[in-house]
Design goal:
single chain, about 200 residues, mainly beta, nine-stranded antiparallel sheet, about 50% strand, globular
């Protein structure tokens, strides 16, 4: 009985939480403007073949960036996001430090990477985004296949949020990060989860 009363009291004291997801893949929810990247909820996951034994994965988080978008002119969208290479993570802290060393990213010298879009082709809730990726001061064109994930008012911040998921491929040797190829795979698969917040 005491537990039931305590549970009831907690439920009364707890603020109401939305019973459905606040974001949905409804393009009409997106308004024109410039959105700032949500650094807490944006990341790039990379994976590559490790010596033919297994796939290896790690992540970079976003440190700055923006999305400029007008639903009336979706092809004119602009994306510019900077990623914190010096904060890269893996499941092994020792291995992450090795990746930050001069053998690979030389994160002390080149602490960030940056993607700047050069073109967007929209097809419904999907888009092909072309742009320039810069790692270690080496810039190469890349193509991302993006899907509009959702939009809606964030119940915490009360601001409009929009999100996308994208995939792409690069060769690490193109960016001066090709140590140990071909023993370790050169081709890298990218999965990007990007969230943006209206100002």
């Amino acid at each position: 009985m005491r537990l039931t009363i305590l549970t009831a009291a907690m439920l009364v004291a707890t603020p109401a939480i939305a019973q459905t997801m606040p974001g949905t893949a409804t393009p009409a929810r997106v308004t024109a403007g410039t959105y700032q990247v949500d650094t807490a909820h944006t990341q790039v996951t990379w994976s590559l073949n490790h010596m033919g034994f297994s796939m290896l994965e790690g992540q970079f988080g976003a440190s700055a960036g923006s999305l400029t978008f007008d639903p009336a002119k979706p092809q004119a969208a602009k994306v510019d996001v900077t990623f914190a290479i010096d904060q890269l993570s893996t499941t092994s802290a020792k291995f992450a430090e090795h990746l930050k060393s001069k053998d690979f990213f030389d994160a002390a010298t080149y602490p960030t990477a940056r993607f700047v879009s050069t073109g967007v082709k929209v097809m419904g809730n999907k888009a092909v985004i072309t742009g320039n990726l810069t790692i270690k001061d080496q810039t190469k064109p890349v193509t991302l296949n993006a899907t509009f994930f959702g939009a809606g008012t964030n119940p915490m911040s009360k601001k409009l949020n929009v999100g996308f998921r994208a995939t792409g491929k690069i060769k690490r040797s193109d960016f001066g990060v090709g140590a140990y190829t071909p023993v370790v795979g050169d081709e890298v698969d990218l999965t990007i989860n990007a969230a943006f917040t209206a100002q």
